[in-house]
């Protein structure tokens, strides 16, 4: 069996597939080694009917990893096509037959004594996988609080890439929200408009229009956000607007949801104790969830190009 003791049999680290137990670093590497790290979060969805696993927008995620690495001056030693094959190979080796999260992490190995100018270091690259069931169409909802923390701004950190250090910002906002009795947070950017949630982008519906903060609002260049804008326009025929969003628009929206690889589509039914619309999942959110689900599970052939088949069943049969 692929799963032993709650973890997959293999991960991939610095050019090789290795057994999980064999991938260790010395404890003194903790600390500064990940301050300069960047990462990706990718999903693969299992389809019961075809017994196949599909990775969602694999190339786009790996291209974003390459951009993140460029931004923080880490060299990527593998072409995107090769990394793509590496991930498919890892999923097959682990015989993954469930919804799964794939996490590439690039970091600067051997940081001892070089805290600031970590230049010319060999970039280490780890790819590991873990189960992550989908919550689409499950009726899951969240409440949100507008955080007292501001979203990191492009003047201090690069919000548009998956820079691990940025996530301290989201953690602070997330912890504040939980302690105050909410599920998640919305961060306002340095310019005073809505940026995003910790680990997810924000979309709202008002008068039948889908509105989302633009990419200069201190948001991650999100792949789910991009996919949902395409689906909203092309499948639901909605007008989609990317622009600055005011805080009070969250309170007066008919529908609000967060979106992202892990978040998928998560309906937000209350913000700062204001009901969003009727305080229940709205019709546009529901429709978009259905369409997104159909695309991810291969029931909407138009967007087959977004899905990379892994070949899990074929590999197991060999
Ligand atoms: N913002 C942040 C800060 C994130 O970490 C994520 C998750 N990657 C998102 C937005 C959504 O991005 P994506 O759709 O590419 O997963």
Descriptors:
318 residues, alpha+beta, D-amino Acid Aminotransferase, Chain A, domain 1, D-amino Acid Aminotransferase, Chain A, domain 2, nine-stranded mixed β-sheet, eight-stranded antiparallel β-sheet, 7 helices, 25% helix, binds 4'-deoxy-4'-aminopyridoxal-5'-phosphate
How would you characterize the overall build of this protein?
- The chain has 318 residues and is α+β, with helices and mostly antiparallel strands.
- It folds into 2 domains: 3-131, 2-Layer Sandwich (D-amino Acid Aminotransferase, Chain A, domain 1), CATH 3.30.470; 142-280, D-amino Acid Aminotransferase, Chain A, domain 2.
- It has helices at residues 58-71, 80-93, 167-179, 223-234, 247-252, 283-296, 312-317, and strands at 3-4, 7-8, 10-13, 16-19, 38-39, 42-47, 52-56, 100-108, 123-131, 142-150, 184-188, 194-196, 201-206, 209-212, 240-242, 255-260, 264-271, 274-275, 307-309.
- The strands form 3 sheets. Strands 10, 11, 12, 13, 14, 15, 16, 17 and 18 form a 9-stranded mixed β-sheet that branches. Strands 3, 4, 5, 6, 7, 8, 9 and 19 form an 8-stranded antiparallel β-sheet that branches. Strands 1-2 form a two-stranded antiparallel sheet.
- A hairpin with a 2-residue loop joins strand 3 and strand 4 (16-19).
- Helix 1 packs across helix 2.
- The longest helix is centred in the first third of the chain and has 14 residues, at 58-71.
- It is globular and about 50 Å long.
- The model has no long low-confidence stretch (mean pLDDT 94).
- The chain binds 4'-deoxy-4'-aminopyridoxal-5'-phosphate.
- Residues 41, 170, 196, 199-201, 220, 222-225, 260-261 line the site of 4'-deoxy-4'-aminopyridoxal-5'-phosphate.
């Amino acid at each position: 069996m692929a799963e032993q003791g709650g973890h997959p049999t293999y991960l991939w680290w610095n050019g090789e597939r290795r057994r999980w137990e064999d991938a260790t670093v010395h404890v003194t590497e903790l600390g500064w080694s990940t301050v300069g790290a960047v990462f990706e979060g990718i999903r693969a969805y299992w389809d019961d009917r075809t017994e196949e696993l599909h990775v969602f927008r694999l190339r786009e995620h790996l291209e974003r990893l390459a951009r993140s690495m460029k931004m923080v001056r880490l060299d990527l030693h593998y072409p995107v096509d090769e990394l793509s094959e590496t991930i498919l190979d890892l999923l097959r080796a682990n015989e993954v037959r469930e919804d799964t999260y794939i996490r590439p992490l690039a970091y600067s190995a051997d940081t001892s004594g070089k805290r600031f100018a970590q230049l010319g270091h060999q970039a280490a690259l780890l790819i590991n996988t873990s189960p992550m069931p989908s919550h689409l169409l499950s009726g899951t909802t969240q409440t949100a609080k507008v955080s007292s923390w501001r979203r990191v701004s492009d003047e201090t950190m690069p919000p548009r890439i998956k820079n691990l250090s940025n996530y301290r910002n989201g953690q602070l906002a997330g912890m504040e929200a939980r302690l105050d009795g909410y599920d998640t947070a919305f961060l306002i950017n340095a310019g005073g408009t809505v940026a995003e949630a910790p680990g997810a982008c924000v979309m709202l519906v008002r008068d039948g229009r889908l509105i989302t903060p633009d990419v200069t609002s201190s948001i991650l260049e999100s792949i789910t956000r991009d996919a949902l804008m395409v689906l909203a326009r092309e499948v639901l025929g909605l007008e989609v607007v990317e622009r600055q969003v005011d805080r009070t628009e969250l309170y007066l929206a008919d529908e609000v949801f967060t979106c992202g690889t892990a978040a998928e589509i998560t309906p937000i039914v209350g913000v700062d104790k204001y009901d969003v619309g009727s305080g229940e999942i709205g019709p546009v959110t529901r429709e978009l969830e259905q369409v997104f689900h159909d695309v991810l599970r291969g029931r909407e052939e138009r967007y087959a190009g977004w899905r990379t088949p892994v070949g899990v069943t074929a590999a197991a049969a060999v």
